[in-house]
Specification:
The chain is mostly helical. It is built from nine helices and three strands; from the N terminus they run E-H-E-H-H-E-H-H-H-H-H-H.
């Protein structure tokens, strides 16, 4: 049985060096390994914990999907999907919420840092973020994003329909696995009859 790797990136602005060095470079290498089954996702639910413009969110998700492909992620070698297309993510989140002590979440460095940065938007999702995400991706200056011109040019050539199809297929595959996993979890926590 192959080991499974699951990792995601929030859809915010253009990719930057932190995304590339912190995640995408590793994703590219991981997808080449024969003994791994890789699931790389757009962390659109997680992105709602920060200040955001609802009018821009859909475009940010679409742009990140294109950037995943433009940088070289290959849907024949890995599964790509948006977090919101796999409802078992929120179901698992609820179960984790019910067994995670509030005091553990309040101690998280990420919560303390982010709540200090966005004092007008300290939401439950921000407190709860660590339940489904164990580490933050480093955020670097947007000026460094200019080094990603090649990716942006390749992204411009990608057709929306093809990108949507790749991510729809990835979501279906992720859901099949998530449904099986959630069935096991429901049984372990006594939610099956």
């Amino acid at each position: 049985m192959n080991k499974i790797i699951v990792s995601g990136i929030q859809p915010t602005d253009l990719l930057h060096i932190g995304n590339y060095l912190g995640s995408l470079k590793n994703f590219l290498e991981l997808q080449k390994k024969k003994n791994l089954e890789c699931f790389f996702f757009i962390a659109d639910y997680h992105s709602l914990t920060e200040n955001f413009d609802a009018k821009e969110k859909s475009k940010q998700i679409s742009d990140l999907a294109k950037e995943f492909l433009a940088v070289g992620l290959n849907p024949k070698k890995c599964t790509l999907f948006a977090q919101s297309d796999v409802p078992e993510v929120t179901e698992l989140g609820w179960i984790f919420n019910c067994v995670t002590p509030l005091s553990h979440l309040e101690r998280m460095t990420q919560y303390k840092d982010k709540s200090g940065q966005q004092k007008k938007n300290i939401n439950v999702g921000l407190l709860d973020y660590p339940v489904l995400q164990s580490e933050l991706k480093s955020v670097l200056s947007k000026r460094i994003a200019n080094s990603f011109r090649n990716f942006r040019n390749k992204k411009k050539g990608l057709k929306d329909k093809n990108v949507e199809e790749i991510f729809e297929n990835g979501a279906k595959k992720a859901r099949r696995i998530a449904q099986k996993t959630m069935k096991e979890i429901r049984k372990k926590v006594g939610l099956t009859t």
